[in-house]
Amino acid sequence: MLKHLFPISMLKPLLSFTFSCISMISLAHATELPNFVIILSDDQGWNATSAPVDPAIPESGSSYYRTPQLDRLISEGTCFSQAYSSSPTCGPSRHSIQYGRSPVSLQIFASAGWGKVNFTGKAEESMARTLKKAHPEYRTAHFGKWHVTHTQEDMGYDVVGEGKGNSGGRDATPDDPKKIFSLTEKGNRFMEEQVKAGKPFFLQISHFANHLPYQSLQKTKKKYETEHADKATKYQNDPLWAGMNEDLDTGVGMTLDKIRELGIKNNTYVIYTSDNGYEGKICQTNSIEERLFYKGYPLVSHKYTINEGGLRVPFIIRGPDVPAGIKCKTRIVAHDIFPTILDILGKKDVVPTSVDGGSLWPLLKSAGTEKVIRTDPYLVFRYTRDARDICIIQDDFKLLKELATGKMHLFDLTKDLGERTNLMKEYPEKASKMYAALTEHLKRHDWEEGISQPARGRGPNNESLNKKVPKKEKKAKKNKKNKKEI
């Protein structure tokens, strides 16, 4: 029919013009979609930034650590002072971010490879695969520490790094501690390639810093031994850790600078957080009353416990329509990231029903006034390595139970960040209701409260199953492993 309407000589140019228009429309749609960059640090507590995350609490920022790039991100976005990792250790937290689900829901409680009970995560319900289901145009990439059951490719990432756990950051070179700068460069190249191709992208950079063994540029470490030495405090005073923290900050700055250089700052969301609180092994086997203050002071304890020091982390979001310079006190959690990204895209309908995190998008747009709606109106945390605690946080109260003794503790987190004053006697009804909600939650996810698998290398009564090593030899090995000045 077309040959009777148009001469053959006109048909080819017409078809070429038509396909060009379709391509231009597709490209325009792709460039309209926002980009997402998640930067995940390792073992970085809530007050590792020099800018306080809560103006009312001076100790929520550090007088010793210097983080000018994260301070910049805080000033340009919304910062959360009550942000929680999904778990007090890396494996469960990283699973939760990828699935938008709590570790209890996923049935994973400790490090990947040995802390699973009856893991329920499905690769097809991951964040990257759901994002591509919503918009197939997205190109996705993950670089750095993985520690997730399924492979990066199975979870929907087009471009990936080595996919290693902690070992990936140990073979760093003197000019690239914890591979901070090489990981950042990989991310920068990926962003540049997608911008040139006109593709929207999702990028996660999972840094090995600040995990053991500590590594820092010598020149950065030296600053904390000299010009910053007088800023050290009782709990923050290690020049090597401080140097590593600042090197990590420099890497963050490189990412932010590349986003600006590519001209995509106004169309790119940057989400920064950590997998759990500060690394430490000074008190995780102590009873709750005996747990100590650490780098996160006035929070008590550290990684491996579900005290505030093990769970609270930095959390910053910058991007289109996100108010700048806001310090939000709403309690949020890492598995809120997944539903937030899909809500930003207006695609809540494709979020798997298994996701129990809540979208932060209404909260962000309202400068912190709207509520976060999750499957449950509370947060539940469980960790069974050594400490073996469970807890529930609802409104301003936290109910924490020690499984070994059965003793329960009720804390008002607005007045008692250090979890020192047990209010069980003052608020018995509140404690009873919270405990009922906690036990119902665990049963719903097929967890039996009183059953806790022992830590790796420990028996059912928490006794060590490892061959005893002489103290001198053990100390020498530990120092060699944990301290690597490069």
Summarize the structure.
This protein is of the alpha/beta class. Helices cover 32% and strands 13% of the residues.
Written description of the protein model:
- The protein is of the alpha/beta class.
- It has 2 domains: 32-375, 3-Layer(aba) Sandwich (Alkaline Phosphatase, subunit A); 381-444, 2-Layer Sandwich (Arylsulfatase, C-terminal domain), CATH 3.30.1120.10.
- The protein has 14 helices and 14 strands.
- The chain has helices at residues 2-5, 8-32, 68-76, 90-99, 103-106, 127-134, 180-197, 218-225, 239-261, 308-311, 337-344, 361-365, 428-444, 471-482; strands spanning 35-41, 78-80, 83-84, 139-144, 159-160, 201-206, 268-274, 315-318, 326-328, 332-333, 379-383, 389-394, 397-402, 408-412.
- Strands 5-4-6-1-7-8-2-9 form an 8-stranded mixed beta sheet, covered by helices on one side. Strands 11-12-13-14 form a 4-stranded antiparallel beta sheet, covered by helices on one side. A two-stranded parallel sheet has the order 3-10.
- β13 and β14 form a beta hairpin.
- α3 (68-76) packs across α9 (239-261), α7 runs parallel beside α9 and α8 (218-225) packs across α9 (239-261).
- The chain is globular.
- The N and C termini lie far apart (75 Å).
